[in-house]
């Protein structure tokens, strides 16, 4: 299968509001879920990839995102069409779906989805090696950035989670690079792991 990086996105920590609009007091929480493209097919900027993630990218809560085990988050572009039809959001939230990085992902890729991706698989680009570690688990911050209080439940019900990588061999990445996949133990796919998590959360 042909797998390609379409876009690389990064983000800085900032305050977002997870509260409902009817609440009198507007609460905020620190998050780096809002990502913006820094390398695309039309502008193939080279981005440094270290053991804890991409140059210029930040993580607000290392207990759930980031660190070496979840250094890079990857999301298939194939899922974007579903979300454009599924979210109940304002125009400002919906417009995010016209730009890659909308789900807080670092790599927007094409050519593979969760049931074809296995924990322990090694992904190699020109000079970087990544190892698949875990599916993404949606939280209240995902609901907030999508502008839909049911977004997390929809992700669980549809299995459209994306996955995390650890970085086995640091180097540099750019959009447009092809990815070679080398199978690991192939005991559980990302879809299988996420389905187990969904049963606990739904």
User: What is the CATH architecture descriptor?
Assistant: Beta Barrel
Measured between the Cα atoms of the first and last residue, the distance is 33 Å
Mean pLDDT, as a whole number? 92
Task: Specify the number of helices.
Answer: 5
Roughly how many Å is the radius of gyration? 16 Å
Shape label? globular
Tally of discrete structural domains = 1
Assembly classification: single chain
The strand line-up of the biggest sheet is 1-8-7-11-10-9-13
The sequence of SSEs as H and E is EEEEEEEHHEEEHHEEEH
What percent strand?
A: 25-35%
| CATH H-level homologous superfamily name | PK beta-barrel domain-like
Fraction in helix: 10-25%
Task: Briefly note the CATH topology name.
Answer: M1 Pyruvate Kinase, Domain 3
Notes on the structure:
This protein has 202 residues and is an alpha+beta fold. It has one domain (3-17, 27-201): PK beta-barrel domain-like (M1 Pyruvate Kinase, Domain 3, Beta Barrel), CATH 2.40.33.20. The protein has five helices and 13 strands. The chain has helices spanning 80-86, 91-94, 140-146, 151-158, 190-201; strands at 3-10, 14-16, 29-31, 36-40, 47-50, 53-54, 72-76, 107-110, 122-124, 129-135, 163-169, 171-173, 178-182. Strands 1-8-7-11-10-9-13 form a seven-stranded mixed β-barrel. Strands 6-5-12 form a three-stranded antiparallel β-sheet, with no helix packed on it. A two-stranded antiparallel ribbon has the order 2-3. A hairpin with a 4-residue loop joins β9 and β10. The termini are far apart. Residues 20-24 have low confidence and may be disordered.
